[in-house]
Amino acid sequence: TPSLYIVATPIGNFDDLPQRAIDVLNQVDLIACEDTRHSGRLFAHFGINSKTVAVHDHNERQRAQWIIDQLSAGLSCALVSDAGTPLISDPGYHLVKQVREAGFEVSPIPGACAAIAALSASGLPSDRFSFEGFLPAKEKAKLDTLKGLAQDSRTLIFYESPRRVLATLSCMVESLGADREIVMARELTKTFETFLHGPVTEVLSRVEQDLDQQKGEIVLLIKGHQKQADELPQAAIETVVLLQQDLP
Ligand code: SAM
């Protein structure tokens, strides 16, 4: 049966496109691209000439039915986003859901993903983590989201735009405390790849002082909340408070 292939593309370095991705992109009848011009540069580099069609946030739901029609007609399709793995803070969820519901196979061609690449080299605990995508742009919503995550013991992973990184680091100081350990991974797989590591206030002042750190593509990783040895679980604290009320 015809399939939809979910193909990861590089997050910077074109050499990170796997051979199987090149083969599949060459073989399919149709490649759905987040941005056909953007992906066109990658395809040109590898001599990939398959037909392309735009599937982005604004037309994904309608285009999904059209792609199902193509699959029904016996054509095979691939989905790519501008960079990395489709659906990961990128379009594709509605397409995959609808194509599966229509009874067609969906098969991943795995490759780069900025969140996983950053985590793998960050030095932060990687046994349990939570990918949080982009924080809300508005200050209040951003702060509330971070406060809601402050007690989470897992490593937290965020995507961030360079325009907002200073504001976000300030919010992190406010919601997580100045000493929380973070890692800022920037320009992964590219010429100016950088990892900044340390307490969030330290990373903030380094980014404030160095305009270059406010450019490019950024992943922020937060070390999970560490329970202090003398810190009781919330339920235990509440029980103690109740008991104390009855004590003479
Ligand atoms: N689907 C992509 C993936 O699998 O990583 C993510 C797409 S999302 C729209 C773009 C964000 O990913 C950027 O704002 C940045 O936070 C992160 N990102 C992408 N490429 C990166 C890179 N080379 N270095 C650091 N972060 C990157």
From TrEMBL:
It comes from the Bacteria. It is found in: Cytoplasm. Its main location: cytoplasm. CDD domains: RsmI (cd11648). It is an enzyme of class 2 (transferase). GO terms for cellular component: cytoplasm. Residues 4-203 form the Tetrapyrrole methylase domain. Its EC number is 2.1.1.198. It catalyses: cytidine(1402) in 16S rRNA + S-adenosyl-L-methionine = 2'-O-methylcytidine(1402) in 16S rRNA + S-adenosyl-L-homocysteine + H(+). It holds the Pfam family TP_methylase. PROSITE patterns: RSMI. Gene3D superfamilies: Cobalt-precorrin-4 Transmethylase, Domain 1, Methyltransferase, Cobalt-precorrin-4 Transmethylase, Domain 2. One of its GO terms (molecular function) is rRNA (cytosine-2'-O-)-methyltransferase activity. Belongs to the methyltransferase superfamily. RsmI family. Catalyzes the 2'-O-methylation of the ribose of cytidine 1402 (C1402) in 16S rRNA. This is Ribosomal RNA small subunit methyltransferase I. It comes from Paraferrimonas haliotis.
